[in-house]
Amino acid sequence: MSTQEPRGGYRENEPRRNAQGRTRNRGQAGPRKYSQAAPGQRKRQADPARLVAFKVLREVSGSDAYANLVLPKLIREYQLDRRDAGFATELAYGALRGQGFYDAILSTLVDRPLTELDPAILDALRLGAHQLLAMRVPKHAALDETVSLARAQIGAGPSGLINAVLRRVSAQEVEAWTKQLSDAASSESERLSIKHSHPDWIVRALRGALIAHGRDAAEIEALLQADNLAPLVNLVALPGLGELSGALELGAEPGTLVPDSATYKHGDVARVPGVKEGTVRVQDAGSQVMARTLANVQLPESGEDRYWLDLCAGPGGKAALLGAIAVERDARLTANEPTAHRARLVANSLDAVPHDYWMVTEEDGRTFGGEDYAGDYDRIMVDAPCSGLGALRRRPESRWRKAPRDIPELTALQGELLDAAFNAVRVGGVIGFVTCSPHQAETRLVVEDFLKRHEDAVLLDTAAAVSDVVYADAPAAGHALAEGSTVQLWPHIHGTDAMFMAILSKKA
Predict the structure, then answer these.
(1) Coil, strand, or helix at residue 272?
(2) Do the beta carbons of residue 386 and residue 442 sit within 8 Å?
(3) Among 352, 223, 334, which residue's Cα sits nearest to residue 281?
(4) Is 316 one of the annotated binding-site residues?
(5) What is this structure's pTM?
(6) Where along the chain is composition biased (Basic and acidic residues) (predicted)?
(7) Fewer C-beta neighbours within 10 Å, C or N terminus of the chain?
């Protein structure tokens, strides 16, 4: 038997309580030593991963930044390893996605409107709530680390408020909070809005979109749930330039929707062969479908097929895929992006494609409606600016920045860009009208209004064109409209962003 003295300073068979019945100090032999620091100064260091997540939320709420742009820079700045980077990502994105739900809880625990709280305090509360209710973090660690973060970044005074509020958050599990808030909701859309952390108007818009595109309104809860799942990293190999064998060797899995694609979930995607060179790209499978469909659709009438236009090309993902296909077809791509910094992103995206086959322009897309461009192009992609309601899982902060009043201005611009493309396409050429939104005002209604304005326009069978580029067992996505059909992809059905497409043509 070991003769080593047991830890804690007492020996075997020695009583652990003194004559007064008090428990003896287990931490050491001899008198207990107390910290000389004031309670608010005992720990003022923030855990690096939590600090990165907090700074992301501060940039998003304080500077209208985008989390997907801020987070990678901060991960590099603080030199987080793979494990801590993953924790910071889940914490930041999860708090942003769940903001509506967490704010509904916090509003029952704070004695003033949340808008009157210091924004930094509110961000810290959201981070703490997400750890307590949605992550596998022990409650004591979530509380202690969030309070330490607050002490270091906000101050000792606010940290006391944060500690008190988060202790009340931790008093119930997420299921109990959900039931309490749902029971208090005044309508079904409000209940879903709180439970799934989407603004009420978006819940109603998405339900209407399901109906407009021929689906059951009862799918709304599955759609909202899918919006709150972290999307997989989707890869595409540029045709004739890249290959996915290196990615598959690193554990990527072949895509299930479209050929020459893969999903990757094994850490830093920059390690995948071809990514740094630009021949293998990160791109949502829905975007891959749209680009491949436009390039593949049979032109309704004869004529050359050499001049292609991506009218709204930034940041360049679809342009890169179209450019690579254009090389194989001996076609030439013009990638247009009116904003200078986004035009640079387009050029960077196309850099791996032989430069003789593409050019980048910086025109307002509506200028292509002028006589100088009439009938110049055989294929045109109009990936129009939109609300982005189809990409809420990728841009979690965007759901809190959009408002119903944004839609009319966007739909007017979409119609103008579509008119410009119709001027620029030749007779017998095709236009792919695409939005990353299922909102019926940005999809079906734009197409219907366009067809009313142009008697020489025709809607093609877009569903059939899409079925030609996806796997045979892919879920159906088409819906009849006028004499043709449109396509709407869904996160809960196809595992993609909610992307819409209509293939249009100009007849003689």
Answers:
(1) coil
(2) yes
(3) 352
(4) yes
(5) 0.88
(6) 8-17
(7) N
Has 318 been labeled as part of a binding site?
A: yes
Selection from 445, 447, 438 nearest residue 489 by Cα: 438
**Stretch (H or E) spanning 380:** strand 377-383
β-bridge mates for residue 253, sequence order: 263
Q: Would you give the DSSP letter of residue 476?
A: P
Catalytically active residues, by annotation = 436
Q: 421-435 in b/e burial notation, b at 16+ Cβ within 10 A?
A: bbbbbbebbbbbbbb
Evaluate whether 48-174 and 284-506 have a shared fold.
Answer: no
Give the pLDDT confidence of 353-394 residue by residue, as tens digits.
Answer: 999 999 999 999 999 999 999 999 999 999 999 999 999 999
190/181 Cα distance (integer angstroms): 10
For residue 70, the surrounding DSSP H or E stretch is helix 67-77
Is 315 a known ligand-binding residue? Answer: yes
Beta-carbon count within 10 A of 483 CB: 10
Q: Class assignment of domain 48-174?
A: mainly alpha
Residue whose C-alpha is closest to residue 261's, from 449, 452, 469, 69: 469
Fold of 284-506: Rossmann fold (3.40.50)
- Tokens matching residue 224: 């909202």
Closest among 251, 332, 327, 296 to 430, alpha carbons compared = 296
